[in-house]
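Any chance you'd type out a single protein's sequence alongside its tokenized fold?
>
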Amino acid sequence: MAHPCIDVCRYDEATGWCLGCGLTKPEKKTWKKERKPDRAALRALLPARLADLAGRGAVVGRAARKR
């Protein structure tokens, strides 16, 4: 399973989630060590995290790189 990182690597201070992909720093560091089912479960959380950030006014995804 491909890593969800899109090389934005800017983090929301309140949640610790990356504005680009939704992962936290510790999750990014351990991604390759995780079992595939665990990666799939984590990946399933990311759209909701990004939607939550966007709902609070954060610029997310590739657009976050430009800020």
About this structure: DSSP finds two helices and no strands in the chain. Residues 11 and 18 are 4 Å apart (CA to CA). The chain has a mean pLDDT of 94. Residues 36-55 form the longest helix (20 residues).
